[in-house]
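Q: what does this look like with FE2/S2 (inorganic) cluster bound?
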Amino acid sequence: MSEQPLFKVTIDNITIEVPAGTTILNAARKIGGDVAPPAMCYYSKLQGSGGKCRTCLVEVSKGSEKDPRPMPKLVASCRTTVMDGMEVKNITSPKVLDARAGVVEFLLLNHPLDCPVCDQAGECHLQDLSYEHGKEGTRYEFQRRTFKKHNIGPYIQLHMTRCILCYRCVFVADQLTAKREHGILDRGDHSEIATMIEKSLESDFIGNVIDVCPVGALTDKTFRFKNRVWFLKPMDAHRDCPTCSGKVTLWNRGDEVFRVTARKDEWGEVENTEDGKPAWICNTCRFEKKQTSDWVIEGPRMISRQSVISQGHYAGNIGMHKPNETFSAVHGGRQPKLMMDIHTASEVNKPNIELSLINGPAHSTDFNSKKD
Ligand code: SF4
Ligand code: FES
């Protein structure tokens, strides 16, 4: 097989070389950080994904070395391949940031403000996206969409009102299960993912729709309302599973396993196993192995320091230390200016309470600061 030629591409003023055929999004992911556009529908492990949500729009300010004309419109970076000498603007383009704010506004038109009771809170890509690119208010004055409730079995909870129609779950059903079990019905704002006539989803791998769903439309029924992810400790673990790779992340509180998920990479996608295949996990591992004794624990899962999930974890009790705050050192002793210190405004998450030392689920009494 002949080697793919390398193309030079410059994204937000950073130049890299990638094989011909690479998309702008994947080239930007190689650079990493904020240069990588957000992606709500593209999922590198699912064939055909991408091109639905438009959150990954970028500006191509130079088409290629041979034809340097800019592209006339913003393009979906997950579906556009690089050309040699191409120049792309993501966060350096005001047009892109403006368009992205518009896309977020559209995605939120019908999305309910469920975050305080949604199991996806803390790991919801739409929450992150709207925090970074969204507006603070809505201009939408109509009633939001509602749907007839579908019961899709004992393991998976569907909240159709939260769905952004990214199609990822449909690709999982198509590509991971023996027969297609659900798809998208109807058109426009009537579109909904549905099981054909509310049939239970029986495939061993259908639980993976929970891991790919970027919002709280598909969540784990066995974990529902049991805890918040930022109170749990993610631990890498494995078991000898006859059906799947058996490599998972356990979400623990003390010795109790609250939830089992696949291991995710920095883009929120399922990691690959050593043989380069995505480590999708089976329903037995995900829903039925909820004892610590079912697993060989490997150690704590690394979670981005920026994530709410990493707050208050691990310090002291398993040999890891919270990183030093460097802000005041690099700002000549000046402290950061906060709009509001959450600890003075809220009764919960007092910094003097070590969440990881509370046995079992936390109760309001654990945070009671009134002195008797
Ligand atoms: S349920 Fe989730 S994964 Fe499926 S289409 Fe809706 S948002 Fe995407
Ligand atoms: S991630 Fe590119 S269109 Fe959705």
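The chain has eight helices and 13 strands. The pocket of FE2/S2 (inorganic) cluster (ligand 2) is lined by residues 39-42, 50-56, 76, 78 (CB under 6 Å).
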